[in-house]
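The authors assume throughout that readers already know how a fold can be written as discrete tokens. What matters is that the chain and its backbone geometry are given together, residue for residue. A single example would do more here than another paragraph of explanation. For illustration, here is how one protein appears when written out as sequence plus structure tokens.
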Amino acid sequence: MEYVGVIGAGVMGTGVAQNLAETGHRVILIDLTDELLEKARGIIRRDLKTRALFRKSKEPFEPASAVMERITFTCDYERLSEATFVIENVVEKWKVKEEVYHHIDPICPKDCVFAANTSAISITQIGSATKRADRMAGIHFMNPVPLKPMVEVIRGYHTSEETLSRVRSLLTAMGKEGIVVNDMPGFVSNRVLMLTVNEAIFLVQDQVASAEDVDRIFKGCFGHKMGPLETADLIGLDTILFSLDVLYESYNDSKYRPSPLLKKMVSAGLHGRKSGRGFYNYEPSI
């Protein structure tokens, strides 16, 4: 892959851009403002400096400066005219995603593959916003992207085998394994995970147990590395709510109704790690 466009410089987009650049790809990272891009630049630079603490590989790392040189930070969508692959990571709201694809479809080369990094929205629906539904797939990366070896790959109704082959090749080059699943909102991981997280939030809301004790039970009894509420804070409570809203609307099933406590926390700006507070406090002590 010569150039990979990455749209959205939030938590997921920043991780995708870093992972791509570390594995030799040239990256065009796009967001709406220079401020957001500068923040992403700082996060990637920081994570490159600390990567040796978290990676299992003992192979020497390429200098951070060399990795950073492969990433172009820009607000200019026209730069995607060079892209052979685009990975979209914007917020889990259909209208926002639809507008992005309407904008990039005429800019990108005809053979450019689009991949939506979405946790719940139908890939077939996203493909319908383009004139290349056969070159549209889903790649559901896990957070933190550079450290997770496996992803869900979602086949939309029109996704071609050639497109899936190109997705697999890109993921292999990124050091990841992709498991291909068929397109239904939430796919596999989030149809299960969002229910688990939401029910854990109901447990706290109903005063059955504290957030800490809910997580301790899952870690101590089932051997999970993180409890469901720690996971929610890592993902972002706003993202959890958006995903549940999509699932609720898609299936018209009351089991996906978001917890009132979740709605209240999101309204209060308690979005988890990225905001400094969620079910746990991540703000530095004074």
The radius of gyration is 19 Å.
